[in-house]
Amino acid sequence: MSSDQRFFDFLKERIGLDVGSVGPAIIERAVRQRCTAARALTTDEYWHSLLGSRDEQQALIEAVIVPETWFFRYPESFATLAKLAAKRLAAINNMRALRILSLPCSTGEEPYSIAMALLDAGLAPHQFKVDGMDVSPLSVEKARLALYGKNSFRGQDIDFRERHFMAENDNYRLSGRVIEQVRLQVGNLLDPALLASEPPYDFVFCRNLLIYFDQPTQQQVFEVLKRLTHVDGVLFIGPAEGSLLGRFGMRSIGIPQSFAFSRQSAPEPLATFVPTPLPLPVQQPVRSVTPPPARSRPFATVVPMPQVAATPSDATPSDAATLLANIAALANEGKSAEARAACDSYLRSHEPVAQVFYWLGLLSDVAGSALEAQGFYRKALYLEPQHPDALMHLAALLQSQGDTAGARRLQARAARSERAADSERKR
């Protein structure tokens, strides 16, 4: 089936999905699946069926969505949340319960991880409540079931499973004590009035979602997130979204691997820093949040596709692009070791490029190897001095280590680079 812009536009309107962030093949495959399920003989016939059925619209969205999540993904974020929650309760004199939002919440692993982390940190049930929201009714129903297979438990530290789950055949049932802390519902982040009647949240988790949107949609969604987050609150995002938050005036709180941002304190604002995204074709679908729509979770798709340097005579630019896309897909699936091996494979068969060292830096950053990450980011900047994401991530690392002056210099470089790029684009 050839690309059909009608379906791309439909998904863009309903869930904000930028087709370039996932590649048209994923959407085309979903359309083919739904054509077969709906017994439509042609795409035109299916298109008319889609327009006339709200259930079919949701079914297509569900076919595009592939949840990729597990308990305590990015564990430092939850450790940071526990520390910040205790401080926040003291700041408000325990006058009310903390409010935490997880969206998109997918099949529940994230909001339940939040509840487990806070209970394990000693908070009493009456001291916090968690709202989980997703655009997918199917995902929300699975979250309410609270029955999980082994794929939801990854990493070396899964002691929490003994504390909070009961074995049930080949699966694990979450304890009622945790379930009671979480309220789940369907909702769409593209709705400007989302949760408009609710007070703001002390902590908001919205990870690996913005990277699936184009810049206007990112701005629209960020305005909703900003409204939902208390002025003194903290927003937790995905590893690849730091430069986006910097562009919108948010600042890292300075705790490595927490991917936590606030409106406060920071080196010079970088409102002018707007990286031009040219997404890698990640083989992993999406997510957002809504009654009619969907969601996301890649590791990094908004990173610009590098200008591949000269390659050996037996390698082609398409080989390089395939390897780079493979790195993105592996990292997106949480397969850090495999992604690192793919980076090594690239460097063995091609001339070094900044983007590969940036990936190695990001993988080291997520793994908690700050010194190693810093070295890789610097190699990326040696090859490409104005690499925007390497500048931003290295600046965040330096800031977390107390090197405010160094962080400011890097941020200033990023801002100057973007101003120069803007001037060039206007010519």
Quick overview of this protein structure:
This protein is an alpha/beta fold and 427 residues long. Helices cover 49% and strands 11% of the residues. The chain folds into 3 domains: 60 residues, no CATH class; 188 residues, Vaccinia Virus protein VP39 (Rossmann fold); 110 residues, Tetratricopeptide repeat domain (Serine Threonine Protein Phosphatase 5, Tetratricopeptide repeat).
Mean model confidence by pLDDT: 79
Q: Write the H/E string, N to C.
A: HHHHHHEHEHEHEEHEEHEHEEHHHHHH
Instruction: Please summarize the sheet with the most strands.
Output: 7 strands, mixed
Note the beta-strand portion: 5-15%
Report the CATH superfamily of the largest domain: Vaccinia Virus protein VP39
Can you give the helix content as a percent range? 40-55%
Which value, in Å, is the CA radius of gyration? Answer: 21 Å
Number of helices: 18
Low-confidence stretches: 265-313
Oligomer: single chain
The general outline is globular
Could you say what the CATH architecture of the largest domain is? 3-Layer(aba) Sandwich
Number of strands: 10
* Cα end-to-end separation: 39 Å
- What number of structural domains do the residues give? 3
By secondary-structure content and strand pairing, the structural class works out as alpha/beta
Biggest sheet strand line-up: 6-2-1-7-8-10-9
- From the 3D structure, determine the CATH topology of the largest domain: Rossmann fold
Biased composition (Basic and acidic residues): 415-427
TPR repeats: 354-387
GO biological process, one term: methylation
Region (Disordered): 407-427
